[in-house]
Amino acid sequence: MTELVKSCLGKAVFAKLSPGIELMEAIKETAEKADIDFGIFFVIGTLKQAAFGFYAPAMKPVTLQEPLEILSCTETSQSRKET
Length: 83
Prior knowledge:
Layout: E1 2-6, E2 13-17, H1 23-33, E3 38-47, E4 50-55, E5 59-64, E6 68-78
Antiparallel strand pairs: 1-2, 3-6, 4-5
């Protein structure tokens, strides 16, 4: 479950995610619910597990199955709605 709060200016949305929610799916869901076509997301919190890809020189996937803390995470996003 994602709780949304829009600012009174209509330009900022704050979301609190329930434990166990998959982060990328929650970001997509939040953008859809808040009718966001383009935006910047700032994330802090914790994860139960994470998958990363390192390129050196080819992509090497790494999955960590332990609690991890997100101290800083920024993402830009644009919807793929057809115009």
